[in-house]
Amino acid sequence: MLLYPYGVTWTPATPLVSRSIPNLAAFPAGGGRRSLKFVLFSVPSRCFPCASASPDRCNAGKVEGSTIDRAAYENERLRLDAAAREAMAATASASEGSEDPRSWKWRIRKRIWDLMEAEDIARNPRPVHHRIPNFVGAPKAAELLGRLEVFQKAQCVKVNPDSPQKQVRFLTLTDGKTLLTPQPRLRTGFFSVLESRMIPPESIMEACSSFGFAKYGKPIGLDEKIKVDLLVIGSVAVDPHTGARLGKGEGFAELEYGMLRHMGAIDDSTLVVTSVHDKQLVDDIPVEKLLIHDVPVDIICTPTQVIYTNTTIPKPQGIYWDKLSPEKLSQIRILRELKKLIEKETGQILPSGPSEKLPPTAQRRKLI
Q: E-assigned strands of the chain?
């Protein structure tokens, strides 16, 4: 996808979304200020080229004005993501035919991933297995989400970093809201805060990517005083009748929710929204088998409809330390910091969950 000033045309592209950006200003040659309007185009490519008119900036190994080496950052991200998917595939395979209480989740996930590939409703990155799957119509689902009253009234929106929610992140920034995005798999820290005033107008779409979070985002810690008005999370499958949801199986959405709950940034009244393809709607997630830390959804947006689930599934109240394995705790620095803080404040040692085999995704080398 490319972000162009309104009025600039590019024949092979199809306009998806026309968007006014009232809080960003351009300076015409004649002086004065005018609001910018952008059109979001679809491009038949896996990558997102730079919106800058300068080809040198697009092709440079190091991003202008940044100390982050883009090529190295992307290579490292892809390496860690591949390792994570391989480990998740091994976990799913090992659970087949076993008494693993999570095996039913993997069966539903695999069915949805297989279906999306077989019916070609999946979109890059592919294959969608062991990912929050990108899908045909994701921008349309995002537009319906953007029309929700709760979104329009929200000042701060937390959005997951996955591909199908990229347009939601774009709408959040162009509507002048604060965007809160977790570091992918909580590898490098906790959350990044982005606001449109922090980002050059031509770089808004770049800021919605994983690399853009690192380049333009302001990292925050557990002591940040912040109020989140709406949570947007990705899903592999979701039940429209109960609000029961399955992610890709790593549990990061639950950890992020628990930490925000501990910070006081959210509470039971904070609505949780997901955007999925209609084929990701299921009716066979057994509510009675959900775990205490599983996060239900209040609203589902697909390319064709908005569904209010009226869920009665209790929302997690924080981090459930007795469910958190020593391996996951050792790989996520922000969790270790939170555990030490709580133990220091209470004078009590927190419990630990059972051991598990984890992919080596939480550690990232510093790239400069």
A: 2-5, 14-26, 34-42, 122-123, 134-135, 156-159, 178-182, 191-194, 218-220, 230-233, 237-238, 245-246, 271-275, 299-301, 306-308
Which residue segment(s) compose the domain that 41 sits in?
2-45
pTM of the model: 0.74
State phi, psi for 276 to the nearest 5 degrees. Answer: -145, 170
For residue 233, what are the CA distances in angstroms to 23, 90, 164, 250, 340? 26, 25, 10, 14, 28
* Neighbouring-strand partners of residue 249: none
Tokens representing 15?
Answer: 């306009």
162/296 same-domain check: yes
Residue 175 lies in a domain: yes
- Give the model confidence (pLDDT) of 176-186 as tens digits: 999 999 876 56
Is residue 342, in this structure, part of any structural domain at all? no
- What interhelical angle do 252-263 and 333-346 show, nearest 10? 40
How many structural domains comprise the chain? 2
> Of 288, 308, 328, which residue is a domain's last?
308
Q: What is the CATH number of the domain that holds 246?
A: 3.40.50.10420
Do 141 and 17 belong to one domain?
no
Q: Where do we find the tokens 């040198």? A: 56
pLDDT tens by residue, 310-332: 999 999 999 999 999 998 888 88
